[in-house]
Amino acid sequence: MAQKLVKQAIFGGVIILLFILLVAIIQLQDFFLRNILWIFLGLIVLFLVWKYDYLLQLKDFERAVIFRLGKVHRVGGPGWAILLPPIETYYAVDVRTQTIDVKPQNVVTKDQVEVRVDAVIYLKVRKDNESVIKSIVEVQDYRQASQLYVVALIRDAIGTMNLSELISNVEQLNAKMEKGLSNIAHSWGVTIESAKITTMDIPAVVLSAMHDQKAAVQKKLARIEAAEAQKIEIDAVKAAAEQLNEKALAYYYVKALEKVGEGKSTKFIFPMELSRLAEAIGGRIAGKEK
């Protein structure tokens, strides 16, 4: 805005001078007829001032690569920079950190699952004059070139992974993407601050199937653990039973019968071992009476 006002002020001043010159011409016709060439040159200068930008006001985050007759001549800014139109032209460069939102990509994994991937890039042009010049001379559009590189890398990398590998290796993919982009952007005078995948949309049907599979695995593990616990319990009971003699077994049978007797049942089923034990005990008692 300030640059435009300065230019308008200068242009207005030139108009006033020309008006004064016109008045002088009317009064001093003979003098101006003898200097018609200089007057013509003055009109040409006025046209150039009106037609071209000859004064640039560049902010602290702006630079201008100035070309003279098609060759790089200098870098202007920050502050004021003077051009010599039409032999000089310029390209403005922003040295602030820029954010590039990569367009979402539909990519097919190795196991034929289509996922939608979105990525973002943070980059900036380095402030030294050589880097500013490279950002214009070495690449047509470093923003578009960075975006195309990321898209190509995402498609190539995801195409070699299964869905499960992709989910578990997102950080490795981000690191690979950032490193590869940094390598090629260095020659453009650009620094890559970050490049990463922000979102990854997986079809709902695939997600549901993955959840079911995970639940089935958890149920299987739970059953295995329960079976192992039961086996341990049975082995412990078996080991304890091997240490019992006939008297101890008879004692536990009697205790078991007491528990049965506490119930409301009218029918009782005696184990075969208990019947044999009772016969043995009865036999011994009868022998003693004789």
From TrEMBL:
Residues of the Band domain: 53-214
Keywords associated with the record: Coiled coil, Membrane, Transmembrane, Transmembrane helix
Protein name: Band 7 domain-containing protein
Pfam families xref list: Band_7 (PF01145)
Keyword Membrane among UniProt keywords: yes
SUPFAM superfamilies named in the record: Band 7/SPFH domain
Topology class, membrane: Single-pass membrane protein
Transmembrane segments: 9-26, 32-50
GO CC annotation, single: side of membrane
Originating species: Candidatus Iainarchaeum sp
Record's subcellular location: Membrane
Statement: the UniProt record of this protein carries the keyword Coiled coil: yes
Family assignment from sequence similarity: Belongs to the band 7/mec-2 family.
Coiled-coil segments: 210-247
